[in-house]
Amino acid sequence: MSREIDDFLTMLAAERGAAANTLSAYRRDLEGAEEAIGPLIAAQAEGLASLGEAWAGLAASSLARKCSALRQFFGFLVDEGLRADDPSPALPRPRSRRPLPRLLGHGEVEALFARAEDEAGTDRAEAVRLLVLLELLYGSGLRATELVSLPLAAVPRDAPFLNVTGKGGQQRLVPVSSRARAALSRWLALRPEGGRHLFPSTGRQGHLTRVRLFQLLRALAARAGIDPEKVSPHVLRHAFATHLLEGGADLRVLQTLLGHADISTTQIYTHVDSARLVALVNARHPLAVRAGQV
Known about the structure:
mainly alpha, 2 strands, 57% helix
């Protein structure tokens, strides 16, 4: 492995908190490219373009990952002054776009909440817990693993934020709505004593499992009259992101809220409302505003 690749992976680990699996994948991709075209520090556009033939049998997702690793690597070389140019535009393009996430409409989300709130009105611990889980998935956009493994210490007494540890051990502050905080207060009053997790369990992990969360949400969907196949923790996270973007949220803010290391991961949500984005440009761009004043 070249020294530049080693330095690049060290940067990913130190500055972006990249997980071990991510680093291993990037290592394989970059070393494989060097085997095909020689040292990347001296690679030219022609060499990168030739990788299309070498990678012809790969799935579109694998090709996209390899190209992403190389683009980030060449960006690193330019940033560090190790290269004056970035040849990555010559990389082959994936044959198809990344599939769009499954989505829930506003009406379906409202139906889920209506059912969960109605059931939580009984103050049964399980029902209140489910309402909190729903509030944090859709209201804060947490990943399933982040949610079920939340420690009690992640819930500050007064601040409207959760301290969340995401992929690669990266920590971020996630805002919690006033209604979610109210549901959290109800749950803390009913939560079984003991354990360090917000959602404790007697199982080996000591907290609610991702599988059980999935089951609870699908059962709630069925009771709310929604096709259970449409509902999962990840779908609710997608709904959080999509509906925020529809409401005018900035993509960089959304990236921070979701805990994405790369803005390209967040950009998939720009499909949600093309007409609204066009209208936003027409209404807010300085030239459009000036034309309206003439």
